[in-house]
Amino acid sequence: MAFTYDPNYFISSIPNIYGNDEIRLPQIEAYKKIKDYFDSEYKNRNSLVVLPTGVGKTGVIALSPFGICKKRTLIITPGTTIRDGILKNMSQENPNNFWYKRKVFSYGFPLPNVIEYEGKNTPEEVLQVSNIVVLNVHKLQERLDSSLTNKVDPDFFDFIIIDEAHHSTAETWVNCLEYFKNAKVLKLTGTPFRTDGVKIAGELIYKYPLSRAMHNNYVKSLQNIKYVPGDLKLTIDNDSSKEYSVDEILNLGLRDQDWITRSVAYSQECSEKIVDASIEALNEKLATSNDIPHKIIAIACSITHAQQIASLYENKGIKTAVIYSGLPSETKDEIFKSIDNHRVQAVVNVAMLGEGYDHEYLSVAAIFRPFRSELPYVQFIGRVLRFIHEGNENDNIAKIISHEHLYLDKLWEKYKKEINESEVIKNLKEYDEILDTDFGDDDDAGLPKDPTSTLEVGKVIESNSHTLYVDSYLDTELIRRSKKADDELNEKIKLLVEQFNLTEDQARAFAAQAQNANQNLNRPDLIVKNKKKDLDLVIREELVPNLIVKYEIDQRGTDLRNCALFTGKLWYLKNKAKDNIAMLAMYYNAYLRNEIGLPRAKWQDDDINRAFDLLPNLNNFVEGVLSTYYNKQ
């Protein structure tokens, strides 16, 4: 069999990337940073790019070899789900592959030869004519004769891309990079740390914050709902004659917090309350959405536990699937098809859907297990972040539901910060005109794999009264619009009941039907046409929001007038800005204008590059001034 092979494909091809409105801004930004890095005299061949789930990591993978790879590219994935997704998005046989769909190349233009390495099942001649080789990391184990490192020379690849790079410290990954010691390395992840909290090795060259992704509608906003029982008692050692409150158990030192979380996780009574709360959240979404097939995704402690939770959902009329890694491939494929074709309303998983599975209609996250580290929690929440492009405001607010005594508040704080920053970005939009003016997985949660194992749990007795605590900190624009829409809908229902003598349920159904017929929320893609706009976005969507949140600055206050930033040659800015948020943004712009020595309208490419070079030191200076001013050194 004859194959066409161009060893210089990635250098000689001219992809349509810059100025391509079909490619997302963070994908273009990431590609530029990657290319600039490897075009420079870099000291560390390991580069790192951080992108939140849902922003377009696969697209970055598809773009990054162009102009960088001088031979072949190796793409390493941690599991089959991610591997299959990448292969699908790069398949020449798929008319919706990334390169054609995003108009990187026109239909019919020769695409790179992409193959999956399947060990002994991959013929040598196929391997030799490949431009891109995709494989699961297990195909790199040196002990196997079929390992790729036993099949090719160390210089076979010029470029290595590691997806979900928080796995990359494992021995197999490390040995692979040592074997291909001269290859450039790109690591991509949404979580730049390992289960043990250690940062991933590599030079961080680009990070797109979740706050920007939320603001630009690349991902859903989030709402945290915590089930708080009116009263909760536990028994110890199966002694039902004595019941203890949580405080009594902890204060008396009878058991520790881990014991409490295990007891709550395995309590059918507690689980049923979370099942009910998640079904209520699902029904609220289904009642106000425009035929959006919202679903619940739940996470359990073990296979047995997952099956128990699935039974609770099924008993309440919710068609439910259980999925875990030990299922046969055919069964997993059937379940995925049932999810994709909306034959189920809930999916209960056991460490299975943490990475690589994308289904935008997963909108309610029900947590039935504790988390001992941030990584698996972040990965699970990532499953509900995918934005629903045809949805309305309510459709794009994902709800996270958990029990108070799983103690997940600390892990939730990460998202509270990101959401707050997304609000700062929105508020800065008010000042567009004035700012544009030139003035002078390895976590086991501490749980047994099966509830029948020897780790002790206590019996939980809950009162019927409870509170669903919705985190009031979350007040994003989507959530405010959602509340306003709910108020308007309730007013319509009231009028229908009064004027047409309908029941409340009849009126609600009628109003929802009319509302759905008129809904058409378009996705506001933010595409940047030039570097000046890139600079604005970095200031307005990253630097200023981070400072506002980090130093807890009152956005609408004016106290920054008295800080050292506005006592020197830029003193006049405090008289042109009405509040703190505007003062900060204007300070960055005015400082850069003064340093460049020209109005921004007259900046050339070199001037803009110079401004980007000035930003890191400028930001460090501003942080130092604010730290001193707010006594947070």
TrEMBL record:
GO CC annotation, single: cytosol
Pfam families given in the database record: Helicase_C, ResIII
Oxidoreductase found in the keyword field: no
PROSITE patterns: HELICASE_ATP_BIND_1, HELICASE_CTER
Domain Helicase C-terminal: 274-432
Keyword flag Zinc: no
GO MF annotation list: ATP binding; DNA binding; helicase activity; hydrolase activity
Domain (Helicase ATP-binding): residue spans on this chain: 38-210
Swiss-Prot/TrEMBL keywords: ATP-binding, Helicase, Hydrolase, Nucleotide-binding
SUPFAM superfamilies in the record: P-loop containing nucleoside triphosphate hydrolases (SSF52540)
Protein's recorded name: DNA or RNA helicase of superfamily II
